[in-house]
Each structure stands twice: as structure tokens, then as C-alpha cells.
Amino acid sequence: MTATSLHSHDRKRRPVLITGGCGFLGCNLAAELARSGRHVVALDNLSRGGARDNAAWLSRQFGELVTVVAADVRDMRAVNEAVANASAVLHLAGQVAVTSSLDDPLEDFEINARGTLNVLEAVRLLNPSAPVVFASTNKVYGRLLADDAVMRDGNSYVPRDERLRAGISETAALDLHSPYGCSKGAADQYVRDYARVFGLRTAVLRMSCLYGPRQMGTEDQGWVAHFMIRAIHDAPITIYGSGYQVRDALFVSDAVDAWLRVLYAIDSVSGRIFNLGGGPGNSVSVRGMLDMIAAMRGRRVDLQFGHWRPGDQPWYVSDTAALAKAVGWRPQVGLEQGLWALEQWLVERFPVPAGLHRSLEEVQA
Q1: Cβ(52)–Cβ(46) under 8 Å?
Q2: CA-CA distance, 159 to 212, in Å (whole number)?
Q3: Which of 338, 335, 365 shows the shortest CA–CA distance to 350?
Q4: What digits encode the pLDDT tens for the residues 29-61?
């Protein structure tokens, strides 16, 4: 990684602010920074399942190196206080589920769009030298491919246009679909524009499917961990759509590596947007993932099927060539290795004594 002014003595003593720092990716980022001796402020409203557990884990593991601030990015005063002394801002706080955005579009907008604008304004007015890296989503590209633009190949969809099979690049047109796609797309563009118009050092990472330890997956978000948790408890799994839809899965340590490479190279990548995912080599269909989990566990779980959900993409795989060229990043953890690591963590975290099934509501609380 290229050294920048982020490593100056004064800035190194100042904390890295991670909004959503007690979420899945946020706490993994906080842990990696703390292991390197960096101070971290994890600002999180602790509303998401597992966030309080992650906050307690960070405190146990790293003590004074990680400060947890229970606050919401909609609270401008709290955001201002946290941003003012930060050496950098990793902005991950957000409403993360399409289904929740359909239930309450206004709250989705306030968290994702207005919350991001609060962070950007705090940086612009109080700490304009602090880099900002933002967690966007592949959902800003919309559904991408119509039903007749994909075909079945075994248990997976593939694009009929072979040129697309290397992945979707950042040149794909935005096609915001669902309130969630709109709110994240608006935030995505604000982050980019604050670099162009106000000269802030910002970058955007449009992320695909992340998975790994400390992920408390649910049906609405974190589907790989959700499937594994259900399998561990021999509980039925609901597939929405055909199950042939494809995603590229990225293990969390690879995601952390990408985020920190972008942060440390911010002077050369400011104002840019990158796709971040496992790429073609780590792509898998929903049915394919269930087959892998069944092979690991030695048994299958019961499946149920529901209707396609709004904005669900039949096929999405990231082209990460731009990120590789800019910061030298490539995923290192393959699907099989990553799934074994996730299973091991989940079994240790949520043990199920023989003959006794722990409440799934308790597991995912």
C-alpha cells in the first residue's frame, strides 16, 4: 500500500471514524485497524441484529484502541463531533435491505441519503482533509438483465451475451430500482460529487455479496450467512425466485483489504468509483450455494419458494479490473475456504447441543 499523509504522526494519533462500525464489515475493518495499532471510533446506532455483540467483542479484543459511540448518522450533532477529530472516515452506516426500503421509503432515504450528506457536510465544514470512503452497492445498476437476456446453464443463469460474463464494470449505466437503490444511488453520487465540486478526498466502493465471520445474516441481508445458520439448525430455507440467480461472493478479509488499500491510496483514487466483489472466479447461484453448504454439512435442508422480490437481479458478477489496476487488489480467499471459515465461526458462536435446537430468533437477534 502506498504511504500517504494519512500516516503522518499527527494523523496517526487521530482515530479512524467508521460509521456503522459495529456492523459486519464495519467491525472487521475496526479490528484490522486496531491490530495495526490505529485508534478507531465505531459510530453505530446498534439497532441491527448482532451489533451489540460486535460492539462488546471489539471492546474485549482491543480495549481503548476502539471507542464505540452509540449514535445515528441522522443526528447531525453526533456526526459533527465524531468527524471533527477523525483522521479518515469509512462510511458504512446505512439501511441495508431492499425489503425494509419498501416498507418505509422515507426512513430509508433519511438514513442512506440524508445520513451520507450529513457525513459529507461535516467533513467539508469541519475536517476537509479527512479521506472519505463510502459503502455503495451493486443495486445502483438496477436489474441489469431482462429475463430473456439470461439463460440457464446447469443450476445457474448466465448472460446470453458472452461479453458480459467477465462481469459488470463501473461503466454500466445507473438504473436505480427500489427505494433502497435510489437512496444508495443518491448517496453514491453525492460522495463522488463532493470530490469534484468541493475537493474532498472521497472514493466509492459498489459492493456485491460479502460473507464471513461476525455476519449475523438474515433473510433480507447477508444471505450466505443466513443460509448457513438455517442449515446448522436444520431449519427450512425460503428461496425467492428460481434459485438460479447468480452473485459473486467476497470473503470479508478480502473486502477489508480492498477498503484499506483504497483508503491508503486516496490521493490517487479520489473521486473514483470501484466495483468490489468476488468476480467471476467466486460467482455462484443460490442453488449452487445450497449445494456447497449441503456437501459441507452432509445433509440438505428443506426448501420453500417465494415470488421474486423487487429489484432482484437474475445475474450480477463484478468486474473488479479497475480496482485491481488502481490499488493492486485481488481476492485471495476462494468460496470453499471462505465457507468453511464462516461455518466454523457460526458453529462456535451459535452451538446447538444434540437434540436441542436453539431459537433462530435468538440467534439472529
Answers
A1: yes
A2: 28
A3: 365
A4: 999 999 999 999 999 999 988 899 999 999 999
| Cβ 19 vs Cβ 73: under 8 Å | yes
Query: How sure is the predictor about 258, in pLDDT bands with cuts at 50, 70 and 90?
Result: very high
For residue 365, the tally of other CB atoms under 10 A from its CB is 11
| Contacts of residue 357, Cβ cutoff 8 Å, sequence gap at least 6 | 233, 234, 235
The b-or-e profile of 95-114 (16+ CB within 10 A means b, else e) is bbbbbbbeeeeeebbbbbbb
Please give the positions annotated as active site: 180
pLDDT, tens digit, 9 for 90 and up, residues 218-253: 877 899 999 999 999 999 999 999 999 999 999 999
Question: What values do phi and psi take at 67, rounded to 5?
Answer: -105, 120
**The CATH number of the domain where 224 resides is what?**
3.40.50.720
Q: How many domains does the chain have?
A: 1
- CA dist., res. 212 & res. 35, Å (int): 18
pLDDT at 69: 98
Instruction: For the full predicted model, state whether its pTM sits above 0.90.
Output: yes
How far apart, in whole angstroms, are the C-alpha atoms of residue 36 and residue 287?
Answer: 39
The span from the first CA to the last CA of the chain, in angstroms, equals 37
Label residue 266 by pLDDT band (50, 70, 90).
very high
Asked whether residue 113 carries a pLDDT value surpassing 70, the answer given is yes
Per the structure, the complete domain to which residue 334 belongs is given by 5-363
Write the CB contacts of 67 (distance below 8 Å, at least 6 apart in sequence). Answer: 15, 39, 40, 41, 42
